[in-house]
Amino acid sequence: MDEQTTTACVRHAYELLGDEVGFFMAGNRQLSARDIAAFASSGSDMQYGEVLPAGMERIAAALDVSRCARLCELGSGTGKQALYVFLRHAGLVDVLAVELSRDRCDACRRAWRRLAAARPGFDFDESRWDAESTFTLRHGGRRLRCHAGDLLDDRWRGDVAAAGVLVLQTCFPPSIHAALCERVLLNAADGCRVVCYHPMEFLWRAAAPCPYSPLPCTTRGDTYPTSWSTDKGYAFSLYVRDGLGGVKSAALEAEDPASPFRSCLLYTSPSPRDKRQSRM
Predict the structure, then answer these.
(1) Which residue has the higher pLDDT, 23 or 8?
(2) Would you state the pLDDT for residue 232?
(3) CB 151 within 8 A of CB 96
(4) Contact (Cβ atoms closer than 8 angstroms) between residue 98 and residue 156
(5) Distance between CA 116 and CA 12 in Å, rounded?
(6) DSSP 110-134
(7) What is the pLDDT, as a whole number, of residue 238?
(8) What is the pLDDT of residue 279?
(9) Mean pLDDT of 34-51
(10) DSSP string across 194-237
């Protein structure tokens, strides 16, 4: 699909008249006590935001998603971005979205069901939702899956290893950085391209050297429109697993007084000022 048709389909699925921006988004509203407890036990931040279609276009172009067959998004929220790239890039034959919040996955389930009902050729299967917390949208031999669960679960290892692109646009708590490196980033295949909320230098807590380097087509400070910063955008970090070790670990960066990664502010989510600006 072209960009305009894809955006229209996503807005129809989620019953939106335009881009959803600001802090009080659907992904932030009406979280159950079960989900709040799950976030608390994992040390995760319940704060929620999304990359806007304009940002998705630029990130997908930098990651060369159009030449990718498999994509894995860990921390997929209400599933808008996973749906967008699935509709936009016909070469993607298998997309997996994993989200800790069952409530956000339920919002995703309703949206994908709505899309399938409105678009010929799409098939939606939610028969395994109650028993296995998963559902699937299919189109033309391709599939888009969503699972409610822990992104560090070993169930996704095969998907991560097969993915050409990993999407990690979530503000992961420092308590899981080491596990994220060991169980996800080191499990990815050579050549895999990754987009992260935080710079890899700050995420890297594994004993093994970091095998990732910044994507040559990007520069530090490149920004992409988001729900919390529609104009200024947010500086997501993009990498490729090339085995060259172009990224220092957080420990090495911390030893450098001039390093920008010494600041603990990199652990924080978008500032209230950014959120106020995004609602203007």
Answers:
(1) 8
(2) 93
(3) no
(4) yes
(5) 11
(6) HHHHHHHHHSTTEEEE-TTHHHHSE
(7) 96
(8) 28
(9) 72
(10) EEESS-HHHH---SSPP-EEE-TT--TT--B-BSS-TTT-B--E
